[in-house]
Each structure stands twice: as C-alpha cells, then as structure tokens.
Automatic annotation (TrEMBL):
GO CC terms of this entry: ATP-binding cassette (ABC) transporter complex
Organism: Iocasia fonsfrigidae
Entry-linked InterPro entries: ABC2_TM, ABC2_TM_bact-type, ABC_2_transport, Nod_factor_ABC_transporter
Compartments where found: Cell membrane; Membrane
Domain of life (superkingdom): Bacteria
Entry keyword set: Cell membrane, Membrane, Transmembrane, Transmembrane helix, Transport
Name used for this protein in its record: Transport permease protein
Family in the record: Belongs to the ABC-2 integral membrane protein family.
Topology within the bilayer: Multi-pass membrane protein
Length: 244
C-alpha cells in the first residue's frame, strides 16, 4: 500500500463517515450562518461588514474544526476503531495528516459562509484575496491541530467538548476578533500573543480592511510555528498514551 493510497483512503472514509452526514453539514452551515446574520443584521444602522468579517471567518473555522476533530478522534478511540488504524502499516505522521485533512477542508468550507453573505451585502473588491485565502487555510490547519491536541488529551467525547470550550471561548475575546488587541487590559494582553488565532485573524484583517497591527510576514511565520508545535506535541502524546 503506497502512502498516497493510504492517505486518500483514510480521508475519503472520514469524509463519507463524518463530514457528509446531515447533522454535521447542518452544524457546519447553521453555526457560521447564525454568527454571520447576528453581526450583519443586528441593527438597521449601517454595519461595518469588512470590520466584522475577519472575526466571523476566524470564529466559524475555529468552532467547526475543533468540534469535528475533537469528537471524531475521541469517538474512534473510544470505539477502538482508531486502534486498528494504529496497527496498520502506515507512518504515524501520514495517518494523522490524513485524519486531520477532512477537518481542515471542513474549516475552509465554514469560512465560505460569512464570505458568501458579505459578498451579497457589500463590495469586497478591495480584498487582497491571496493572503486572505492563505490565512483561511492556515487558520483551518492550526484550529484542526488544536482539536487534535484536545482529542489526544482526553478519553471521553464530553471531555473533548468541555476542554475545547476552555480554549475557544477565551479566544473570542483574546485574539482580536472583535475587540482590538490594543484595547485589551495590559495584564492579559500577553495571553493574546500565545494563541495562534491572533496571528491568523491579523492576516485576515490585513487582507480585508488593512486594519492589522502586526507585520503580515511575521504573522505567517508565527501561525506556521504554532501549527508545527501543536502537531508535534499531539504526535508525542499519541505515542506516549496510545502506542505502547
């Protein structure tokens, strides 16, 4: 079995088993739609859609990817089906890349929901699409690897959801999604720079409305750094806890 065939088989199986199921499709669509309409239609007064868009895209990706991966990995480990994958003659890195690719794609599609409504409601011709697309992809990767880190750290599905919320809800306020980092209290501002979503959201701001506060090149390097760190830690935890 070649590496590519193994990768494709695991990815297609996960897409068919989890991501194309009606409850997950509805979750993937309804959640970002709710967030988007709540912000875009919250008042009859003009809404700064380009100002809200980076936060909405980031939030849709974060909640979609972490929820899906934390649940699917934890569920498969609980059902022992993940143990059979670990016994397969597949490199562990390839296996985990395949298991996480479905969630990364799911996150990218989640990002399209607020973009779709924004296109209908305002002129987005000023967007720099290349950095926007790259940042959406990088936010999906880091959020998925955060979900992997959470899934490997717990035993039960409900623990995965609870542990996910421990990271996700503070990130709404700490990552500059809707509250500028410079407006946060100085005491908690260092926490913002320890969260990968801060850098992804700042790249989106650079691409959408030019309201970034950090260098885009530095943001790209730092979010890639967080992606590598989260993946490496997760692999080490899998070897330590699940492979004996």
């Amino acid at each position: 079995m070649t590496t590519w065939i193994a990768f494709k088989s695991i990815l297609l199986k996960d897409i068919k088993t989890y991501y194309l199921k009606p409850p997950n499709i509805s979750w993937g669509l309804l959640f970002p739609i709710s967030w988007t309409l709540m912000f875009f239609l919250r008042t009859e007064a003009p809404v700064d859609i380009p100002g809200f868009l980076p936060g909405l895209i980031s939030l849709s990706i974060l909640f979609g990817t972490t929820s899906m991966l934390a649940v699917t990995i934890t569920f498969e480990k609980k059902q022992a089906s993940f143990n059979r994958l670990l016994l397969a003659p597949i490199d562990l890195n390839t296996l985990m890349f395949a298991k996480t690719s479905g969630a990364i794609i799911f996150g990218v599609f989640n990002a399209l929901v607020p973009l779709f409504f924004a296109v209908l409601l305002t002129d987005l011709s000023e967007i720099s699409w290349l950095p926007a697309i790259v940042s959406i992809f990088l936010i999906s990767i880091t959020s998925t690897f955060l979900g992997l880190f959470i899934a490997v750290s717990v035993k039960e599905v409900f623990e995965a959801q609870t542990f996910s919320n421990f990271f996700r809800f503070p990130m709404i306020f700490l990552c500059g999604l809707f509250i500028p980092l410079q407006n946060l209290p100085k005491l908690i501002r260092p926490l913002s720079y320890c969260l990968p979503l801060t850098y992804g959201a700042d790249i989106l701001k650079y691409a959408i409305n030019g309201d970034n506060i950090m260098n885009p090149g530095l943001n790209f390097l730092l979010i890639l750094f967080f992606a590598v760190v989260l993946f490496v830690i997760s692999i080490k935890n899998i070897k330590k806890k699940w492979i004996k």
